[in-house]
Amino acid sequence: NGLIGSVAGFLDGTLVECCRPVRDQQLFFNGWKEIHAVKFQAVSFPDGIIGSIFGALVGRHNDRYVLNASGLRELILDIRIRHNFHFTLYGDKGYTQDEFVLVPFREPLNFHRAFINYVEARHRVTVEYAFKDVKMSFQHFDAFLKVKCLQAPVGAYFIVCCLFRNLLTCLYGNQTSRQFGCPPPTIHEYL
After folding, report:
1. With the C-alpha atoms ordered 20, 21, 26, 28, is the resulting torsion angle positive or negative?
2. pLDDT above 90: residue 91
3. Which of 15, 41, 56, 125 would bridge with 66, disulfide CB 3.0–4.6 Å?
4. pLDDT over 70 (residue 75)
5. Sign of the torsion formed by the C-alpha atoms of 108, 7, 55 and 155
6. pLDDT of 167-180, one tens digit each?
7. Cβ neighbourhood burial of 26 (10 Å; 0-12, 13-18, 19+)
8. Distance CA 136, CA 186 (A)
9. Mode of pairing for the β-strands spanning 88-90 and 7-17
């Protein structure tokens, strides 16, 4: 589609499972995964840094809803105008393609489109690595019985864990920065 070279980062959403809330259970219930959860959206860059994290929203929302609520498109437009830097993000099929987000071809009708889907899927999975790193480094979020949606600031905790994960990336790199051969910033540069 000619825009693959303009991809600067990878976009995805994740669910953080939580115990069943004492009230408003239907808001937190995600019918797709059949769990109670809160939803986050992140943009991961080739240097392994989570450049944007948005959430927590109730778990029933899909990726498109979270993208619309995040204001990320407006932020991208502002960066394009201020810095004269045109870029896009690459997301999975949970998003709709527009001038800000590229998604896989829905029906790869030929070898070229199938190959682009394959290559970009191997790159897009890096945002999944970011979520996995956060959940593994800060295992509080991997044990859903500890995550109490309405009794603790789960969103703030998760965002702080993402920032700490970025600091660890600055110190040690991570799978994403090694995959792309793109070293992360130093802590001084990051802060």
Report:
1. negative
2. yes
3. 41
4. yes
5. positive
6. 999 999 999 999 99
7. exposed
8. 22
9. parallel
